[in-house]
Design a protein that fits this description.
This protein has 466 residues and is an alpha+beta fold.
Length: 466
């Protein structure tokens, strides 16, 4: 059995290899950084908080992972026994919130040393507005949004269990290593993998998708003219620069509740409603019934998967061909059924998916059919731990790392203070402008609310009404 520094080593999973793959092509290595903060409007015992952070490290194997590279250039991973590095404390009192956030953005833009080094950083912070808590920087190869929220929640639940009598000690986390072993067994040539491959190959073989632009078909027409192929169906949706920013749009609590009530009434997920809104926007702008959007699947169906940490996201194109005569609710149900079918096969390697699609429909490097990617993060801190604290206010904040290899990536999350929705658009600055995003967000909301209020209207009627 291969070991490193006395610890057993493990190969990378497909989800991790995907991140290593695009990291190679990014000039900015901070592209994999995820920065966030969780702060509470209450004074904290900093020594106790520090103890709870160390305790959370001990309970979460993924937070103690190290990467190493062999002589053939192959990366692998191992888990150290404990973390002993110092937990920093930074007091922003006396500064402006803008200055404090600027510093945390700067922390988020510092790449990790990949070999034999910690792949996360925690700083205890006191912010100028009287809130106290932690800033967490993590590497996407070892954390996704759900595992990051889970770890932050673990720290705060550990702390609360020590200082509040009615808050119980949190349940144990699941083993990251056990989930790694399950993923590796699947990848080793299981029957499940064969079924998943057959599903996606059939999906790809049905027909070639078509690119839909954020503000119309101009980009596709430009590619057609450039290539001399009037039937070209793919286009480039990124710029030459990976420089990026995050623009966030806030949907208030009451309208958010209306959307959630619609989803509950018709037994669909908010992801289905978001996909319906986005694909209808692109249908309106481009005149195509055929729309593809990349969607992220968390692959956390079981409790063990939910609490094991790590990165489990697989991302696949989600394609719908919905004629304008179809009603809004019929289209929503079609999206739901397609999503459920895709979830059942989501352990398949996305790199293999794109390789097979490129073989079926050869295109020049850089061309794609998807103008954007979508993630909805249903997990909130409000209903997982902090609801026991009564009226204590708390906030979360996401910080851009300054780089992305994608033109546009939308992450929709619930705000902790009121459970409203935040639409976080991470985008390449030179590929998509804030003005374009404002336009998309405005019509996305109009489509979702018009459809939720009038589910029997046809898609074409909704497009005309908005």
């Amino acid at each position: 059995m291969k070991t490193r520094k006395g610890y057993q080593t493990y190969p990378l999973t497909k989800a991790q290899k995907f991140h290593f793959y695009y990291l190679k092509f990014s000039p900015k290595k901070e592209v994999l950084n995820i920065g966030t903060s969780l702060t509470i409007e209450v004074d904290l015992d900093w020594n106790m908080l520090r103890e709870c952070i160390y305790e959370a490290y001990g309970r979460n194997e993924c937070m103690r992972v190290r990467f190493a590279c062999d002589k053939d250039g192959e990366w692998y991973q191992y888990v150290v026994e404990k973390e002993e590095r110092e937990i920093e404390f930074v007091d922003f009192t006396g500064q402006t919130m803008e200055r404090a956030e600027k510093e945390m953005r700067a922390w988020t833009a510092v790449p990790f040393e990949s070999e034999d080094a910690p792949m996360n950083r925690i700083v205890m912070i006191r912010t100028p507005d009287g809130f106290n808590g932690v800033y967490l920087l993590a590497d996407h190869r070892l954390m996704d949004a759900q595992s990051l929220i889970c770890f932050l929640r673990d720290i705060i639940e550990l702390y609360c269990s020590k200082v509040y009598e009615d808050v119980p000690y949190p349940k144990a986390m699941s083993s990251y290593i056990d989930q790694i072993k399950k993923d590796l067994a699947y990848e080793a040539g299981s029957k499940a993998k064969e079924r998943d491959e057959a599903f996606f190959h059939k999906l790809i073989e049905e027909s070639e998708p078509i690119y839909n632009g954020i503000d119309g078909s101009g980009r596709l027409e430009m590619e057609r003219e450039k290539s001399g192929n009037p039937n070209l169906r793919a286009a480039v949706n990124v710029s030459d620069s990976v420089d990026a920013d995050i623009d966030t749009f806030h949907l208030e609590e009451e309208p958010t509740k209306r959307l959630m009530d619609f989803c509950e009434k018709y037994h669909v997920s908010l992801t289905c409603l978001l996909l319906m809104g986005l694909r209808t926007y692109f249908q309106k702008m481009n005149g195509n019934d055929d729309v593809s959007i990349n969607t992220a699947i968390a692959r956390r169906a079981t409790l063990k998967e939910k609490r094991s940490g790590g990165t489990r996201i697989h991302s696949f194109p989600f394609r719908t061909i919905i004629p304008q005569e179809r009603t809004f609710i019929e289209a929503i149900y079609e999206i739901r059924d397609k999503q459920n079918e895709m979830f059942r096969h989501a352990n398949y390697d996305p790199v293999d998916y794109f390789a097979y699609r490129s073989k079926m429909y050869p295109n020049e490097s850089g061309r794609t059919y998807e103008p954007m990617a979508l993630t909805y993060q249903p997990m909130t801190l409000q209903d997982n731990g902090l609801e026991k604290l009564g009226g204590i206010r708390y906030k979360t904040k996401w910080y851009p790392n300054g780089a992305t290899t994608q033109g546009m990536y939308l992450t929709v999350m619930h705000r902790p203070e009121d459970n409203g929705l935040d639409f976080n658009f991470e985008h390449q600055i030179h590929a998509v402008s804030r003005k374009q995003l404002e336009y998309l967000y405005y019509y996305l909301c109009k489509i979702m609310f018009k459809g939720a209020e009038n589910p029997n209207l046809s898609v074409g009627e909704i497009i005309k009404l908005i």
